[in-house]
Amino acid sequence: MSLMDFFRNRNKPATASVAKERLQIIVAHERGQRSQPDYLPQLQQDLVEVIRKYVKIDQTDVQVALENQGSCSILELNITLPDR
Amino acid sequence: MAKILVVTSGKGGVGKTTTSAAIGTGLAMRGYKTVIVDFDVGLRNLDLIMGCERRVVYDFVNVINGEASLNQALIKDKRIENLSILAASQTRDKDALTQEGVEKVLNELREQFDYIVCDSPAGIEKGAYLAMYFADEAIVVTNPEVSSVRDSDRMLGLLASKSRRAEKGEESVKEHLLLTRYNPERVSKGEMLSVTDVEEILAIRLLGVIPESQAVLKASNQGIPVILDDISDAGQAYSDAVDRLLGKDVAHRFLEVQKKGIIQRLFGGRE
Ligand SMILES: Nc1ncnc2c1ncn2[C@@H]1O[C@H](COP(=O)(O)OP(=O)(O)O)[C@@H](O)[C@H]1O
Ligand SMILES: [Mg+2]
Hints:
The complex is a heterodimer.
Chain A (H helix, E strand, L loop, with lengths): L2 H9 L3 H20 L5 H13 L9 E8 L2 E8 L5
Antiparallel strand pairs in A: 1-2
Chain B lengths: L2 E6 L7 H14 L4 E5 L7 H5 L9 H5 L5 H4 L1 E2 L6 E4 L12 H14 L2 E5 L6 H8 L3 E6 L3 H17 L1 H4 L6 E9 L1 H5 L6 H8 L2 E7 L2 H9 L10 H13 L16 H5 L5
Parallel strand pairs in B: 1-5, 1-6, 2-4, 2-5, 6-7, 7-8
Antiparallel strand pairs in B: 3-4
The structure holds adenosine-5'-diphosphate and magnesium ion.
């Protein structure tokens, strides 16, 4: 790197490192989604509809995730109810 | 045993066809009977890059439909012995390629060739899926740029879960990273992801780095695979990649900024 580059880079952050950070986050997220079974989105949808019969919630208020631990799988449900 | 090699990427315009032509030609030059198959139905281009566009009579879909025999459709390269091309169809029918049809043709190709190089279309839809489905090895072509890296990772996900090897529970498809259109100068300025950055994110073995090079356009203008331009940086980088693919241990080149010599500096060194 020349002296000129040094001064130029001092003011601006290197955009490549921004790109790398963003990629690491999105790729990790998408890999996590990939290992989930195909039925999860439908299951989430069904759960939202059942709960909506009783409480007004948003699509995103129900989160489902499947975690594998050895020979058993744990279905994790996270339902956020509106403020009382 | 014949090997099926897919050249894939997810994203379009990253250098899959350039790479298929170069790697296929390189394998044939090293004595392997090689065929390069264009899977880009509707957007045939491999024939132009290989310089045999005027010799296409029958294509991949004709063979699937039984309108021509495989040997009628195979185009023998005029420069390199052992090298043939199977052109894509220009049809607009997206369903022209079927899984059974592709399998039948690949099985027939296996009997004649050592390497079957499949030039994948862009995307993750049917064409790209069929190109990668039967693969033994995959060359994932990636540019040092966010959307290309992300799409490559998606393609790796597909290879790991939806390929024939994955479905049959066989040994997984061997994955190779080929980083193309690399610009060491921009990397050194922090404007472009570096080889190490991309390797770290995708976490697959690095097959090679092909520099951004004027030789690629020059070669495609003339219908000559760039690997035949053996004094060009891109040609040499592809040649190294072929050697690595065949198991040779070759040091990576063209990763650093090339210092311009005094002559080049005086005369504005373009070439
Ligand atoms: N290493 C390289 N240096 C410069 N240009 C390149 C390089 N690799 C590919 N290109 C150019 O990029 C464009 C897309 O390449 P192509 O091989 O057709 O990509 P794809 O098959 O992935 O769509 C072409 O114009 C090609 O000449
Ligand atoms: Mg192409």
